[in-house]
Design brief:
Helix content of chain B: 25-40%
Order of helices and strands of chain B: HEHEHEHEHHEHEHEEEEHEEHEHEHH
Shape of chain B: globular
Order of helices and strands of chain A: HHHEHHHHHEHEEEHEHEHHHH
Structural class of chain B: alpha/beta
Pfam family, one (chain A): E1_dh
Largest sheet of chain B: 7 strands, mixed
Protein name (chain A): 3-methyl-2-oxobutanoate dehydrogenase subunit alpha
Distance between the termini of chain A: 77 Å
CATH class of the largest domain in chain B: Alpha Beta
Strand order of the largest sheet of chain B: 3-2-4-5-7-6-12
Cofactor (chain A): thiamine diphosphate
Strand content of chain A: 5-15%
CATH architecture of the largest domain in chain A: 3-Layer(aba) Sandwich
Shape of chain A: globular
Number of helices of chain A: 15
CATH class of the largest domain in chain A: Alpha Beta
GO biological process, one term (chain A): branched-chain amino acid catabolic process
Keywords (chain A): Oxidoreductase, Thiamine pyrophosphate
Helix content of chain A: 40-55%
Number of strands of chain A: 7
CATH superfamily of the largest domain in chain A: Thiamin diphosphate (ThDP)-binding fold, Pyr/PP domains
Strand content of chain B: 15-25%
CATH architecture of the largest domain in chain B: 3-Layer(aba) Sandwich
CATH superfamily of the largest domain in chain B: Thiamin diphosphate (ThDP)-binding fold, Pyr/PP domains
Oligomer: heterodimer
Chain lengths: 374, 343
């Protein structure tokens, strides 16, 4: 077989059908080339909101440290730390109203906690005593999702259903940079845009999907640019600038709530720890890169700015640290207690009604447990 | 929304005999009329009424919000259905063809089947996944798979398949009313099978999980379901000439499995053949034969045999007749049941 010379590009140019034109001007959907920032710009800051953000950031950082320590003691099976990403987590939770829904991934424990979920309930999956430790409907937080991006179509479906019922509920779905390569990411964004579903997609671009850097994940100009192809706006924000993330998310949530449709937000941040406690990050990145991001720490950025503006003083800093310490102590104490496991629960909620097959297997396990107890 | 008068007129217009496709459509329509939380979604289900016309008229009657043409994306269809169920709706999704359902497998297996269990019962998934399945209609590649073994191997799913027009209506109503996810396998070569069934005088329908004896017999039991039920009934008639009085058990529900009805039949007859058109190796027949053997060993006069599709990718349409278990292959298996210990 001979390799044929390809004809010139002009020969391939398709003739557009008579009335063809783009249905939407893509320009307004494009993200700004630089991530949006608030800190350091002199923008006005709402003191109450800033102090709330600050307190949650400090509490989140302490939570991450405590949870990581618990893995070393064998109290947690695994913990994917969000240290360095706290601004995204906190802003995500605080951008929502109580009636809204959060769809977190496995790394988003902090967002769930910042939304008011009990820390022990939030850690159930990672502790390993059950898969989900809370009633998703009561807290309006979907189960922490381990398969990548599969929670995104759930967010779309829920938001769509809420709108069909006439409820002004918004769904916020969190995903990582690696998750944007999955088919479910594409399908969810496409459904959301076609249905104009009230959903906000927040990509926490923390630089790595376990060990694979963004450059090997995508060739897009930015992950926010992907929005344009679906017909929704893309927004790029500094993920370590808590007020900026909160503002961009707030605008997207408000837009979705008033029927304006979905938004894709990329928050540029960095995972300071390894993927999980079981991962060795030194195999795929150098300490210089990590140190450079340390200078862009979300807590320090906010603390410095609030202090410089006189919105936060030493007493405020101490109070936030003490509150975080109290939370950590309580968490430690609760996690050090042995979880109460009930093996017969294995068969309890597979189906609404237990089948004969499961009844037989339950009887087998019961007999085994009784034999053990003897 | 129809009024009572409209309904009566519509019912009178339902001239007998009805096809299985019409019965399925009627089941969705009645469920949607009774329960505003029932939503139908899928590719082509709206304006077109489905490629098999099973959703014909639903969008017109209930609006596009209740019967929705989605983008062409099976994971998206089922994934959004999960979110809709989370918010209290009862989605009925159509997968159009058996092999088109595979992109939705992750949603089905990781979320639909497990959500009740993950959330300790706080969040059920009352979703029906309608999958037209099986061959015999001359479909080209990717249009004739029998994927029931994959679904059966996933805890948390119910897997049902009707073989009669009556059952198509009754089972789909049951599936939509069920608080657990149901994979509803529609034998597409029976879509145009007819019966005198009418929704005005519905035949009594056994609930999900109950098998039914379609033909009583004394000398052996044919255990089958879906598209193979008519094959087995025909084989049973043909076997009379050979002096075999065959009982035909229509499983209707693969999960949960009705051990009671199946084993009662096998204990009566002492011999059993499992018949299905999906591949035999790793297929439903192996599970069924093992269950029957474990429970009825002392009643068996012969090993439990399997008549299944070959262990090959579904063949091209011009060769499918050699793959699908037909009457002769069933009769051959029945002849082999004259096995006696020591032979």
């Amino acid at each position: 077989m001979t390799v044929q010379e390809l004809p010139g590009a002009a020969a391939y140019r398709p003739t557009p059908p008579p009335a063809w034109r783009p249905r939407t001007d893509p320009a307004p959907l494009l993200p700004d080339p630089e991530p949006y920032r608030v800190l350091g710009t002199g923008a006005e800051l709402d003191r109450a909101l800033m102090l709330k953000l600050y307190a949650e950031l400090v509490r989140g950082r302490r939570f991450n440290a405590q949870a990581t320590a618990l893995t070393k003691q064998g109290r947690l099976a695994v913990y994917p730390s969000s240290t360095g990403q706290e601004a995204c987590e906190v802003a995500a939770a605080l951008a929502l109203e109580e009636r809204d829904w959060l769809f977190p991934s496995y790394r988003d424990t902090l967002a769930a906690v910042a939304r008011g979920l009990d820390p022990v309930e939030a850690l159930t999956l990672l502790r390993g005593d059950w898969h989900t430790g809370y009633d998703p409907r009561r807290h309006r937080i979907a189960p922490l999702c381990t398969p990548l991006a599969t929670q995104l179509p759930h967010a779309v479906g829920l938001a769509h259903a809420a709108r069909l019922k006439g409820d002004d509920v918004v769904a916020l779905a969190l995903v990582g940079d690696g998750g944007t390569s999955e088919g479910d990411f594409h399908e969810a964004l496409n459904f959301a845009a076609v249905w104009r579903a009230p959903v906000v997609f927040l990509v926490q671009n923390n630089g790595f999907a376990i060990s694979v850097p963004l450059a090997k994940q995508t060739a897009a100009p930015s992950l926010a640019h992907k929005a344009v192809g679906y017909g929704m706006p893309g927004r790029l924000v500094d993920g370590n600038d808590a007020p900026a993330v909160h503002q961009v998310l707030g605008e997207a949530v408000a837009r979705a709530r008033r029927g304006g449709g979905p938004t894709l937000i990329e928050a540029v941040t960095y995972r300071m720890e390894a993927h999980t406690n079981a991962d060795d990050a030194t195999r795929y990145r150098g300490s210089a890169e990590v140190d450079a991001w340390r200078d862009h720490d979300p807590i320090r950025l906010l603390e410095d700015e609030l202090t410089a503006r006189g919105l936060l003083d030493e007493d405020g800093i101490r109070a936030a640290a003490e509150a975080a310490e109290t939370m950590a102590a309580a968490l430690r104490e609760q996690m050090n207690a042995e979880p109460s496991l009930t093996p017969m629960d294995l068969f309890a909620e597979v189906y609404a009604e237990q089948s004969g097959q499961l009844r037989e297997q339950a009887a087998q396990l019961r007999a085994e447990l009784e034999a053990e107890a003897r | 929304m129809t009024t009572a008068t409209d309904n009566t007129t519509a019912r009178r217009a339902d001239k007998k005999p009805a096809t299985m496709a019409q019965a399925l459509q009627r089941a969705m329509r009645d469920a949607m009329a009774e329960d505003p939380t029932v939503h139908v979604l899928g590719e082509d289900v709206g304006t077109l009424g489905g490629v098999f016309r099973v959703t014909d008229g639903l969008a017109k009657e209930f609006g596009e919000d209740r019967c929705t043409d989605t983008p062409l994306a099976e994971a998206g269809i089922l994934g959004t259905a999960v979110g809709m169920a989370m918010y209290g709706l009862r989605p009925v999704v159509e997968m159009q063809f058996d092999a088109f359902a595979y992109p939705a497998f992750e949603q089905l297996i990781s979320h639909v089947s497990k959500m009740r269990n993950r959330t300790r019962g706080a969040m059920a998934m009352p979703i029906v996944v309608r999958v037209p399945y099986g061959g015999g209609i001359g479909g080209v590649e990717h249009h004739s798979d029998s994927s029931e073994a994959y679904y059966m191997a996933t805890p948390g799913l119910k897997v049902v398949t009707p073989a009669t027009v009556e059952d198509a209506y009754g089972l789909l109503r049951e599936a939509i009313a069920c608080d657990d996810p149901v994979v509803f396998l529609e034998p597409k070569r029976l879509y145009w099978s007819k019966s005198d069934w009418s929704p005005e005088a519905p035949a009594p329908v056994e609930p999900i999980g109950k098998a039914v004896v379609r033909r009583a017999g004394r000398s052996a039991t044919l255990i089958t379901y879906g598209p193979s039920v008519p094959v087995c009934l025909e084989a049973a008639e043909a076997a009379r000439e050979e002096g075999w009085d065959l009982e035909v058990v229509d499983l209707r529900s693969l999960v949960p499995f009705d051990d009671e009805t199946v084993c009662a039949s096998v204990r009566r007859t002492g011999r059993a053949v499992v018949v299905h058109e999906s591949s035999g190796f790793g297929g439903p027949g192996g599970e069924i034969a093992a269950r029957v053997t474990e429970r009825c060993f002392h009643h068996l006069e012969a090993p439990v045999l399997r008549v299944a599709g070959f262990d090959i990718p579904y063949p091209p349409p011009m060769l499918e007749k050699h793959h699908l278990p037909g009457v002769d292959r069933v009769l051959d298996a029945v002849a082999r049941l004259q096995w006696e210990a020591g032979h």
